[in-house]
Amino acid sequence: MTEGKKKAALVTGGAARLGAAISLSLARTGHDIALHYNHSEEDAFETQRKIRKFGVECSVFKGDLSDMIFVNELIRASFSSFPHLNVLINSASVFKRVDIRSVKPYEFDEIMAVNFKAPFFLIKEFARFCNGTGSIINMLDTKCKYYQKEYSIYSLSRKLLQELTIMAATEYAPQIRCNGIAPGLVLPQSNYEDDYKEKLENRSLLPGRGSKEEITRAVNYLLQSSFVTGEIICVDGGESIDRGIRTHDNQN
Fold first, then answer.
1. Which CATH number does the domain housing residue 136 bear?
2. Structural domains of the chain, count
């Protein structure tokens, strides 16, 4: 654990996959962790166990981020556990393959609630409770940088969160910094076929997959860089550049 001022972070979706990697990386650098999860209960308590090995505390909070009552309770409970909370990582998301033509109202509401509305109000309440300086990192997706029609609604939610990142950075400066990270192919969905994974790995300027460590390094950079705010770091092997000039590619 690092010496100095006590630090704590709220990580939504912090039980598994990239959320867990971020939670563990923050614990390694001396942050107490308020770990949110919804469905991944076993993963949540396993991640909590690993976090405590770094000599920091970890409180676990279960709840649905589409429920605004829970969203407000999550902030209050997190600050109750850790009054020194000074970092918010919006990592939870709903990822669905659905376009404008086929989306159902309930699908639209779920995606927007978890991917945009919840981060919006978490940011608002975090800023209200945070004493002194703080830092917010919104986990985005390289899809916020280009248009991929099969994922229209998901991409729209990410584009909205990208704009919110810049707006929040402007509104809450200089006390609170707000930045975003847009990963590319790091942890493919488990239900992807091998040939589709291979196709994904070869569609960026730097072929292959990124690593969880590259994401956590980006998180650490943003937390440590006090002169950076309103920025979106793409950790995607150049996918957003390449795909951004091929928006009509048939291989979307």
1. 3.40.50.720
2. 1
